[in-house]
UniProtKB/TrEMBL annotation, chains A, B:
Residues 21-153 form the HTH marR-type domain. It comes from Amycolatopsis taiwanensis. It holds the Pfam family MarR_2. This is MarR family transcriptional regulator. SMART domains: HTH_MARR. GO terms for molecular function: DNA-binding transcription factor activity. InterPro entries: HTH_MarR-typ, MarR/SlyA-like, WH-like_DNA-bd_sf, WH_DNA-bd_sf. GO terms for biological process: response to stress.
Length: 170, 170
DNA sequence: TATTGTTATACTCTATAACTATA
DNA sequence: TATAGTTATAGAGTATAACAATA
């Protein structure tokens, strides 16, 4: 044994512990991980992962961006965007259009098939939200939404960026 | 080009998208990932990772459990608990006590040093909660807490299990 | 020389399965 | 033979950095 202080006399207070793991921050982390996990399970039937779904949403919301722009917006390395776009392009969901004026970069766009999948994704997302909010009345859901939106704003979280990506870290 | 449907006529509706990424489920996932990330950054000064902090809390709350019991409770493989306990034991925070009646298993306990660190961890957790709740009044925080606690209960989430562990998946 | 995209590599985290010891 | 713990191995996911093409 090294420097084992081992003073058994000190009683560890379980109430204190319960209070901590009952904090808003803890509940948010717990519920957030749960929601993300369930969403991931749900979109398996579309053969999508959360990062892929997030990328589809970004491209749909702001078509024509370069991969670098998207990488910057997402706070993720460009090499990761490459791999993601590769997979989606092979499946005909996204296309890279050459920019004739600067042939170094691509403009990313959804294909028709991509938009179709995005609509199915939207339906799943609404079902998911319904499942996560189970147990709350409509009024309570709106109340919760107001509080969460204010927290997100206070924390400076960007809209539309899925937590599967790290938001602008550092 | 393979089966590029490419019907430009279909206008992708940004409002629809905004609504989805504005759902309670999305905000929960986003805020939860943010809270978990910030907590991880905060406990770096204690040289702890979130899984380690979670294990310390579990051992403190229910001392004397075997590694298998903890693994089951956390829904994580026993081999992972081994590695976690190894690290904490080397630092003199946790001890494995042989059970004389069944010498196959260990009873896990915090050392005095472990309890001391846990108190520092508690202080950081309270600071963290304060930072995450910034922008809400005391009344709003209680309101939020009530809503989150009901959601967690409705989803069957166990108390005190940090999302760094996957809760009882499958 | 600077920038976009790409590829190669390595690292971290985690799960699965084989192994040891006690029962 | 069954169970607690351990070790070995492999896989997914991700970041870093070197590289190629274009400006």
């Amino acid at each position: 044994m090294i420097s084992g202080v081992n003073d058994e006399a000190v009683t560890s207070p379980p109430q204190q512990l319960a209070r901590e793991s009952d904090s808003n921050a803890f509940l948010l982390a717990q519920l957030g991980a749960h929601a993300a996990q369930r969403f991931a399970e749900r979109i398996v039937k579309l053969d999508l992962t959360p990062p892929q779904a997030g990328l589809l949403r970004i491209v749909a919301a702001q078509p024509g961006q370069s991969q670098q722009m998207i990488a910057g917006q997402l706070g993720t390395p460009a090499s990761r965007v490459v791999a993601l776009v590769d997979g989606l392009q092979e499946r005909g969901l996204v296309e890279r259009r050459r920019n004739p004026e600067d042939r170094r970069n691509y403009a990313l766009h959804l294909t028709g098939k991509g938009r179709q999948l995005l609509r199915r994704l939207g339906r799943l997302a609404r079902q998911h939200d319904e499942a996560i909010c189970a147990g709350l009345t409509e009024g309570e859901r709106e109340q919760l939404h107001g509080l969460l939106a204010r927290l997100a704003a206070a924390q400076g979280l960007p809209a539309r960026v899925h937590p599967g990506y790290r938001a602008i870290a550092d």
